[in-house]
Design brief:
The structure holds two protein chains of two kinds. By secondary structure, chain A is of the alpha+beta class. Chain A has nine helices and 28 strands. In chain A, 20% of the residues lie in helices and 43% in strands. In chain A, the strands form six sheets. In chain A, strands 1, 2, 3, 4, 5, 6, 7 and 11 form an eight-stranded mixed beta sheet that branches. An eight-stranded antiparallel beta barrel of chain A has the order 21-22-23-24-25-26-27-28. The relative contact order of chain A is 0.09. Chain B has one domain. Chain B contains seven helices and eleven strands. Classes of the chains: A alpha+beta, B alpha+beta. Chains A and B meet through strand 25 and strand 26 of A and helix 2, strand 1 and helix 3 of B.
């Protein structure tokens, strides 16, 4: 039997087990709601896996996302949470020890405690790889097993992390005895790994996260609340993350990824990981999918990144907790004929997403592929223009200072594509050498130009780079001093060219902006000449509607 | 390759889209034209410091005679100045390396008449520049032009060069482009504005202003002082 097959069976067995325990747990009061348990969380993101390991793109983002969820709907007090980003193995173990001690003190004071450890990063050869250091999985498991908390939960999103459960495998959890369920609540250890011992865990550029963390986070935000009671239990979260991760990776080049689960809990009740009741009661922001809604809903934040996915079945209302902000909710139609898309402004109260109020758009306008609708912005700045040919600069078109305004529209033509209209006005001073030792004739040079450009944009860290084509028109004009009794002169022509720009986002609305253009100008008055000129501009871009 | 073949029409389209009169060479040719100040005959006003300077040179009788003559000449020169101004407002109709032609275009002041201006340029081996220009006119519909103003000078500009002009008032009369005050005959002028003093020689031939012939030389300095001297025994410019 292949290890993938084994992993699938392990996962399926765990799912069956968990569904069973979930149903059993429904018979008892949810005495383990988040407010009844003192929760501690260690969240670590480690993109660097040491020599030979490819740096992970989303490990730190995964960690930040999980930290936000756990300290939000997860009920972890901010002071009881540790977020470690590229901190290394010693810091990880030190924080784990400190949180274990803190949980022990809380337990000694009569509180019921839960310690959750989340890790996103590399793992190899039976150990987590944190930069230059490592933590053997056995060591981590032992540390969790001996931690001073009633419930210890380990969530590992890393390659081959399933090895942490391999030694002991999945074993049936002690059955919940409804009749004898005490008020002691659950106790024990739960380990969840994103992939089997011989599988790689995968990241996705499309969702901007690792698959497993993305689906786990979506589940905790409400997607996994199968019962519709506003509480997402560990069983629900795992079942949801398992199904969605397998589904998402089924067709990936790296192969299907099967999360695995070690469940060693005793006591009564289930472990609640997130509490959405504030959303349903109107005390917290989020969206509500009506009971009749059915299908896969994806929630995207303002930058187009998926923050939650909800595989919704009809029958129960589903709540998704979201921080305040503007989101896009999309749903793919079952016949693949298009998408339903809606913009939602989440504040302090939940917002119902009614299917009848969603816009139907073509599949190629998928907001998750960057098509969040046209994004408009205004650029203003100052710059300079200079012709390449020295003789042209000296007597014909002198260097000029320009001020300009541009309207840019992104993602209107497609993902990463932009177009814009620009206009600029400026001028300079020059002089005509009439030769023969005579005094040169000074003139004032004016220029009015405009154009339309299309470009492709790429994100490189905090900077967006773009390159494209532009077709402009320019009107050049000069006047001489009155004493010269010379007429004003003008020239109008089309100026095609290339454009490149860099944009560095400073705030949500403002970005620093720099652009270089090179254009061709065909001059045909004195003689036919092909001239080139360069323009540079520095300015500020303001995003409309952000 | 097909896309290469399409570059020609694209370039042609862009050429057609380009338009205007933005020309440094035009500026150089226009700078060669005499200005109103270049054409006007300036005689120091009575009582001005320049007049006193003229008197102290011992040529007061010449000045007394030249002043009304120059005033009368300037009336005719104004017509020529009008032509020069018209050229400055009109884009050249023909451009070549050392040639500019304006017109023919209608003379606003004289309906039924057309004007053409031709300027040629010669550049010597020492980069010295010489211009020849001709203001020509004709009755609309006729084939031949008659020269009204011709001239040549050395240097980049009539304002600073050295050369000569001939204003053919008789041609204006024959073309019906004369005004009431237009003199007859011709005005021959030489000038040298290459340094101090600036020299202007005027000769009137053919009965202009009722004079059989008349001539004088004027030297002017930047401080406004000047002196006249009569052409003794000859009328034509030296």
């Amino acid at each position: 039997m292949s290890s993938g097959r084994r992993a699938f069976l392990l996962g399926a067995a765990a799912l069956a087990l968990l569904h069973g325990t979930a149903r059993a747990a429904e018979a008892v009061a949810r005495s383990t709601a988040v407010s009844d348990v003192r929760r501690f969380a260690l969240v670590a993101g480690e993109p660097d896996g040491g020599p030979g390991a490819v740096r992970l793109r989303y490990a730190e983002r995964d960690a930040r996302r999980m930290h936000a969820i756990l300290t939000g709907v997860g009920g972890v007090r901010p002071g009881d949470a540790r977020l470690l980003l590229s901190a290394g193995a010693p810091a990880f173990m030190k924080a784990l020890g400190e949180l274990s001690q803190a949980a022990g003190r809380a337990g000694a004071a009569g509180e019921r405690t839960l310690l959750l450890v989340y890790y996103s990063g590399h793992a190899r050869d039976g150990a987590l790889r944190l930069g230059q250091g490592s933590i053997p999985l056995d060591t981590l498991r032992e540390a969790l097993a001996s931690a001073h908390a009633d419930v210890r939960v380990g969530l590992l999103d890393s390659c081959r992390s399933g090895a942490i459960v391999r030694a002991k495998g999945v074993r049936p959890t002690p059955s919940f005895d409804v009749k004898t369920a005490s008020d002691a609540g659950p106790r024990g250890l739960v380990l969840v790994a994103s992939s089997a011992a011989d599988e790689d865990s995968q990241e996705s550029d499309a969702i901007g996260a690792s698959y497993f963390t993305h689906h786990l986070a979506s589940g905790l935000l409400g997607g996994a609340d199968a019962s519709g009671d506003g509480l997402v239990t560990l069983a629900e979260a795992y079942a949801y993350a398992y199904a969605r991760t397998v589904g998402s990776t089924a067709s990936s080049a790296a192969g299907v990824q099967h999360p695995v689960f070690l469940y060693d809990l005793g006591g009564a009740g289930d472990v609640v990981l997130s509490d959405l009741t504030n959303v349903s009661s109107g005390r917290a922001g989020g969206i509500v999918l009506p009971a009749a809604a059915e299908g896969l809903y994806v929630v995207l934040d303002g930058s187009g990144r998926a923050v939650a996915e909800v595989a919704k079945a009809p029958g129960a209302e589903r709540r998704v907790a979201l921080a305040a902000g503007r989101y896009t909710v999309k749903k793919r139609l079952s016949d693949d004929s298009g998408l339903l898309v809606a913009s939602v402004d989440v504040a302090s109260a939940p917002v119902a997403v009614e299917e009848g109020r969603m816009d139907r758009v073509p599949l190629d306008h998928d907001p998750q592929k960057g098509f969040g609708g046209a994004r408009w912005s205004v650029v203003t700045g100052v710059g300079a223009q200079r012709f390449f040919d020295r003789a042209t600069r000296d007597g014909l078109f002198p260097p000029a200072v320009l001020g300009g305004v541009e309207v840019a529209v992104r993602d209107d033509l497609g993902h990463g594509l932009g177009w814009g209209l620009d206009v600029a006005l400026g001028g300079g001073k020059g002089q005509v050498d009439v030769g023969g030792g005579a005094e040169p004739l000074p003139f004032t040079f004016d220029e009015l130009g405009g154009g339309v450009a299309v470009w492709k944009e790429w994100g490189v860290g905090p900077v967006d780079l773009s390159a494209g084509l532009r077709v402009g028109v320019t009107w050049l004009h000069r006047t001489f001093e009155p004493a010269a009794e010379l007429p004003a002169q003008h020239f109008f022509t089309v100026t095609p060219g290339l454009v490149g720009a860099a944009r560095w986002r400073l705030t949500r609305s403002f970005s620093a902006f720099g652009r270089v253009r090179t254009s061709w100008l065909f001059y045909n008055v004195d003689q036919n000449r092909s001239l080139g000129f360069l323009e540079g501009l520095l300015g500020v871009e303001y995003a409309l509607g952000e | 390759m097909r896309w290469v073949n399409s570059l020609g029409p694209a370039a042609a389209a862009l050429a057609l889209a380009a338009c205007g009169n933005y020309s440094t060479e035009d500026v150089r040719f226009l700078a060669a034209l005499p200005t109103r100040g270049d054409l006007h005959v300036r005689v120091p006003a009575s009582g001005a410091s320049g007049a006193l300077a003229a008197c102290t040179s011992g040529e007061a009788t010449v000045w007394i005679g030249a002043k009304p003559v120059s005033d009368g000449l300037n009336g005719g020169v104004d017509l020529i100045v009008g032509l020069v101004d018209a050229v400055r407002r009109v884009e050249p109709s023909q451009r070549a390396d050392d040639l500019r032609v304006w017109g023919p275009f209608d003379d606003d002041r004289h309906p039924g008449r057309e004007i053409r201006v031709v300027i040629t340029r010669e550049t010597g081996p020492d980069e010295a520049v010489a211009h020849r220009f001709a203001f020509e006119a004709r009755v609309t519909g006729q084939a031949d032009f008659t020269k009204v103003l011709t001239g040549e000078f050395e240097g980049p500009s009539a304002s600073v060069g050295k050369g000569s002009l001939e204003l053919n008032f008789e041609a204006l009369w024959s073309l019906g482009m004369n005004d009431a005050g237009t003199p007859h005959g011709a005005l021959l002028a030489t000038y040298d504005r290459t340094g101090e003093p600036r020299r202007v020689g005027i000769a009137i031939v053919g009965g202009a202003l009722g004079l059989g012939s008349f001539g004088y030389d004027f030297e002017g300095w930047a401080d406004g002082s000047g002196s006249f001297s009569p052409r003794r025994g000859r009328a034509a410019p030296p």
